[in-house]
Amino acid sequence: MKWLIMLTSLASWLQDGHSVRFSANFDSGSLGDVVLIDSVWVRPSRTDSVLHLSYEIVSRSDPGNPANPELQPSGRWFYFLMEKVKGKHIYLNFTNTDPRRAVYSYDGVHFQRFEHYQASMRKVSAFFTADSVYVAYFVPYGWDMLQERLAQWSAPSYVQMDTLGTSMMGLPIQMLTITDPAVPEDFKHRIWIHARVHPGESPASWQLDGLLDGLTEDSPEGREYRRRSVFYVVPFANPDGVYGGYSRSNARGINQEINWDHPDSVTSVEVAALRNRIASLTAERPFDLLLNMHAQSSDKASYYIHTAESTNAEYFEKAMRLAYLTTDDNPYFFPEDMFYSSPAPRYVEGWIWDRTKGETLALTIEMPYSYFNENPEGEWVTVSSLKENGEFMLRAVSDYFLWDVPGRHLLEGKARGNRTIYSHPLLPAGELSVYIWDDAWIPYDTFSRKRPGPFRYVIRSGDTPYRGLLRVSVQPILQN
Ligand SMILES: [Zn+2]
Q1: Is residue 84 a contact partner of residue 21, using CB atoms and an 8 Å limit?
Q2: d(CA 317, ligand 1 centre) in Å
Q3: Across residues 246-253, what is the average pLDDT?
Q4: CA-to-CA distance for 134 and 152, rounded, in angstroms?
Q5: Cα 238 to ligand 1 centroid, rounded to whole Å
Q6: Separation of CA 379 and ligand 1 centre (Å)
Q7: What is the whole-number distance in angstroms between the Cα of residue 294 and the centre of ligand 1?
């Protein structure tokens, strides 16, 4: 009898005072079912005891998809708070999702991955030193975070903020227009970017964040980018999905990514808003480039390149050039990481292809959640490596369009027999590095110039002369 009372009180004590409280009722939060598998007191020494609690975490599936009922709703994304964990050893077993190594945070702001010894595929085993801990599939980038960043990016007069319409749940679908208003539109390249069609893919937002920092900064490079271009950027194409913590759908279960070929009457309101704005912006002139930013469970960054057979040789060449420019001198992303496919009208690339027949280069780019280049021994994905990838992408876009950015000059050659002559009206003094292009920038020559002025360079070669681009990078000599 005495033992039974003790056991009963121990059981209720475990449930009330010692069990962990789970919640996900916040921006981007998501959690399905939590099942306590086991609870055991372990005595590492005579004077010490630690409660070990083991849970099954069933991630929450998106709502059933009314537009594509044949598709299984995804439940990849999770992001929840555990309270009363201090001093306890917690085991988490994830089902319905596939985290390689989940992330955690004690303050909900600074996230880090569980260490290798604490986490593996679908498992976490960790001792916690604070009472509250957030756990997520990857570092979240939620609605509140975006609002803070939008306020910073849109402070200068060369960034305008606008709303394309409202989501099904009434959130604004926000867009930034970034350009130097003093330069006439006719001289500019026009670039559309949208991200987070799939709301669980927060790495895409971290990459875009890095790109937007570079594009909006008050620097010689930033000023030149804005003179040369108009960027239309929709950071959250699916704001309900991000706010609601969905994986791949909007609040109605629709996967917006494959909804572009549906007529206005039955498409999601978010896709209709994007399509309408793209149509009105391109009524006179198509975009030069459209980028659709995602994240993937494959352990590498990728562009989805549309094959020459499914498009044409020129379009394929343009796509590969942008891809190679992105992988050039990039420690995270390599030429062999690409995927190849055909444009289908249900995707934005196919929709654009049907409208412009290749005038607009449209590509989906994917960032991994785990590590790069399928190499688990290499660097695991962090917020800072994703932001760097955003900077690399902006640099690739700049090279792709031959923008003449301070410190980085791309020259087209003129053929004269077996010579190719390159010239620039004005380069500064400094240390010059000359590169030729062979699906990457290949170092070719270095020298220094004492005075600024016109620049001329000749490449002489044998039977097959080099006719490609020349890149001249200038490291200015600091005067004292
Ligand atoms: Zn995606």
Answers
A1: yes
A2: 24
A3: 97
A4: 26
A5: 12
A6: 22
A7: 4
pLDDT tens column, 173-191? 999 999 999 999 998 999 9
CA of 231 to the centre of ligand 1 (A): 21
Judged against a pLDDT cut of 80, whether residue 39 lies above it is answered with yes
**CA–CA dist 190, 282 (Å, integer):** 9
| CA 335–ligand 1 middle distance (angstroms) | 20
Query: Residue 398 corresponds to which amino acid?
Result: S
Q: How far is the CA of 113 from the centre of ligand 1 (A)?
A: 22
pLDDT value at residue 5: 52
CATH code assigned to 17-136:
2.60.40.3120
CA 128 to chain centre: 30
Which 3 state secondary structure label does DSSP give 257? helix
C-alpha 293 – ligand 1 centre gap (Å): 8
- Homologous superfamily of domain range 143-400: Zn peptidases (3.40.630.10)
Looking at residue 3, its pLDDT comes to: 54
Q: What is the largest CA-CA distance in the chain?
A: 104
pLDDT tens per residue across span 416-455: 989 999 999 999 999 999 999 999 999 999 999 999 999 9
Residue 385: pLDDT over 90 = yes
| Helix (H), strand (E) at residue 152 | helix 143-153
The pLDDT of residue 461 is: 81
Backbone angles phi, psi at 63, to 5 degrees: -60, 155
Ligand 1 center to 349 CA (angstroms): 13
**240 C-alpha vs ligand 1 centroid, how far in Å?**
15
Residue 295 scores a pLDDT above 70: yes
CA of 173 to the centre of ligand 1 (A): 18
Give me the residue spans of the domains in the chain.
17-136, 143-400, 408-475
Which pLDDT value is given to residue 465? 85
114 Cα–ligand 1 center, Å: 24
CA of 8 to the centre of ligand 1 (A): 49
pLDDT one-digit tens code per residue, 135-177: 999 999 999 999 999 999 999 999 999 999 999 999 999 999 9
Whether residue 122 is predicted with pLDDT greater than 80 in this model: the reply is yes
Query: Which residue type does 109 have?
Result: V
- CA of 167 from ligand 1 middle (Å) equals 19
State both tokens at 47.
């004077």
**For position 348, what pLDDT does the model report?**
97
Q: How far is the CA of 339 from the centre of ligand 1 (A)?
A: 14
All residues at 6 or more sequence positions from 455 whose CB lies less than 8 Å from its CB, including other chains: 422, 423, 424, 426, 427, 449, 472
